[in-house]
Amino acid sequence: MKKITLISLVLLIVIPVLLQSRVVYLTEEEYKELKKDERLHYWETLENELANNQKRKADAIANAEAYEIRIEELKKELATVNGEYDMVHQQILDKLGVSKDEFAMIQDKIDYFNNKIDNWNNLSDKELWKAKKSIHEMIAEYNEYRQTNYAKVPDFLQDFSDLDNRIANLEASLDAAKPKYYEDTYTVVKGDWLSKISGYSFIYNDVSKWPIIYRANRDIIKDPNLIYPNQVIKIPRGLPNEWKVYKGECLWRIASYPEVYGNAVKWPVIYRANKDKIKDPDLIYPNQVFEIPRD
Predict the structure, then answer these.
(1) Are 230 and 219 in contact (CB under 8 A)?
(2) Is the pTM of this model over 0.90?
């Protein structure tokens, strides 16, 4: 029973191995268990395997020699192509007016922009919005650099294409982070007045909205007819959720402001939301801060 099992095991090993042109060598004990005809067959298998290996070795040596010749030919072809590439590449750089030192600095500039974007992509919406000035400055810097010949060097075309996409995504993220109400700033220049500023296309594009600017800057503008160069004034965007009371204001007047409700009769809405601060709706005081409910 032991011999049958061992022989069966040997055949299971040898047959598939022969099909793969490989032999699993038997131990001395396993060899002794074989019958005479099985031993002859085993030796034939070993001899065939040796012959196969000798042929494979000879073929490999021949192929190796052929490959070495072809490798040398390819090396020469590669050297020729590299030489032609270097010549054309240098002609392109000369045409663009980019020196070798400047070429090396382009990658540094690309890394600079990518690192900036990486840092901002890790911020929360609130933090991102607070960084909007720096972001806009970087985007302006990038757009200016993008117009130079440095961005036209073929080696970096894909890098700049990727940066274009990353900056577009950053602008989209910044727009999504924009709160419902915020304040931009504007620096007054000589010849400005509030209605003129309000009429600028990048402000409100409407000269009649100058009171909105005035009310947002009553801490620094005492007379709406008197503003001065280099004053930095706030430009409200959206509708505020709270209101600081100034001298002379009452609830119906506050409700009438276009940046509040634009409707004086809605003053009770403010009153009901601030009953803890307003004992008498006819009596409110400067510097009180009221919640302005929004639907």
Answers:
(1) no
(2) no
